Amino acid sequence: MKIGLVTPYVYPLPGGVNQHVRYLYENLRLRGHDVRIITSSHGLQRASEGDVIRIGKGFSMPTNGSVGTITVSPRYLSQVREVLEREQFDLLHFHEPFVPFLSLIVLRLSTSVNIATFHAYGGFSPAYEFGSKVMGSYAERLHGRIAVSAAARHFIDRFFPGDYKVISNGVDIARFERAVPIARWQDGTRNILFVGRFEPRKGLLDLLKAYRILRKTGCPCRLLVVGGGPQEREARRYVMTRGLGGVEFLGRVSDEVRDALFKTADVYVSPATGRESFGIVLLEAMASGTGIVCSDIHGYKGVVRRDRDALLVPPRSPKGLAAAIGRLVADDELRARMAASGRERALEFSWERVTAKVEDYYGFVIRRLDVQGGLPAGFRAEVPSARPGPAAGSSAIEPGASAQEPDASFLASASS
Are 51 and 37 in contact (CB under 8 A)? Predict the structure, then answer.
């Protein structure tokens, strides 16, 4: 099929959605599809770079306790029409389709099969509450809906009720298996790692407070901090004014260095306070064989298994963090057991498996539309045939999987 992946965030700037789009693009191509990425530009980027198509300009703005992007263009309608007429997509896959304005315009003008993936999770959202009242017609144009976790599904279903297929984010297993620990920090001192944006919801200050408790108890460890953001000055001031030794602020690093740091760490800590729909960074730590301490929040509980792959701690609890980190640092056997369990768990989230589930869902939606006589005019590919269901006697359902697809007779009756 000819597939367009639409991201409202400026690709390929760092971020969970863009990383998801990147791996989905690569793996769909490996499965024989012709794929493009539709995004916006930011700064002096060319309008087109190979399979990346840029429409409009992206601007950063605060959202959901983090920083998001809105895209604008004075020629949106004509630009989008031109791209859609030229590319002739069979299927458009929107990631966060209701983020203004690129996705909304593409969805409005699409004559293709429209699938959406919802990544976000949060509490009450005034933006979504307002959007649910004015964007119902856009939601009706979606033929299929995916959520990256049960938490994300629960969140979006509050504002746009419907049928959502849960298909998780993935992790590049081979990439982390290739990584090599950094010799500089292989000196016998236990390494604690934090990777994330320096903002309140990521909980860095809680981790620094926990680390201070650990240092006071004489724990032989250091803290490696990767990232940047609005709380960087406050975090550095906390370390300096309290004379905290062993804290290394490494800034933003390349993917290769980041992978090596996961392999270098003895314990990875994610003290997020909430509003996390998933835990991609937890998957990366598990794929690296790193012990994990993380917050006991909805988005994480669908990724790690309590006391098997990670120690879970109530959010905003520096004392709880310190106790869990101290326990994992001191217990080599526990760390080794969790590392082995985490590596095994990570295999279930490989991008090969995740992409296969996405492709299967594409086929399910297309066959449903075909049975109902509702395939859009822009769909010109062959209707994919159904794959065999689970093996007889198999009751296990993998993360993001669902029961066997209904047959054509059921779909036909459902459409009447």
Answer: yes
The token pair that represents 164 in the structure block: 């959502």
pLDDT at 30: 98
Q: Minimal CA–CA distance to 302: which of 128, 161, 155, 94?
A: 155
Residue extents of the structural domains in the chain: 1-170+350-416, 174-347
Handedness of CA 272, 276, 278, 281 (dihedral sign): negative
Fold held by 1-170+350-416: Rossmann fold (3.40.50)
- The whole-chain average pLDDT of the chain stands at 88
pLDDT 10s digits, 17-53: 999 999 999 999 999 999 999 998 765 555 667 899 9
Which has the higher per-residue pLDDT, 14 or 234?
A: 234
Q: What gap in Å lies between CA 226 and CA 95, rounded to an integer?
A: 26
Cβ-Cβ contacts under 8 Å for 235 (sequence gap 6 or more): 198, 204, 205, 208, 225, 249
Q: Is there a contact between 288 and 182 (Cβ–Cβ < 8 Å)?
A: no
On the question of pLDDT at 407 being above 90, the answer is: no
- Domain 174-347 CATH assignment equals 1.10.8.80: no
Task: Note the pTM of the prediction, 2 decimals.
Answer: 0.84
DSSP letter (8 states) at residue 140: T
Is residue 346 within 8 Å of 292, Cβ to Cβ? no
CA distance 123 to 129: 11
Q: Take residue 297 and report the two structure tokens written for it.
A: 């929040």
Residue 291 DSSP symbol: E
The bridge status of strand 267-270 relative to strand 247-251 is: unpaired
DSSP state, residue 168: -
The pair of three-digit structure tokens given for residue 310, joined into one six-digit string: 């990670």
* DSSP assigned state of 382: P
Rg over alpha carbons for the chain, rounded to the nearest Å, is 22
Decide: 138 and 107 in contact? Cβ < 8 Å. yes
Q: In 10 A of CB 120, how many CB atoms?
A: 26
What is d(CA 258, CA 209) in angstroms, rounded to the nearest whole number?
24
Beta bridge partners of 237: none
Percent of the chain with pLDDT over 70: 86
Q: What is the pLDDT of residue 72?
A: 63
End-to-end CA distance of the chain: 28
How do residues 47-95 score in pLDDT, each as one tens digit?
A: 667 899 998 876 655 554 445 566 666 688 899 999 999 999 999 999 9
Chain-centroid distance of CA 406 in Å reads 28
And the tokens for 416?
């009447």
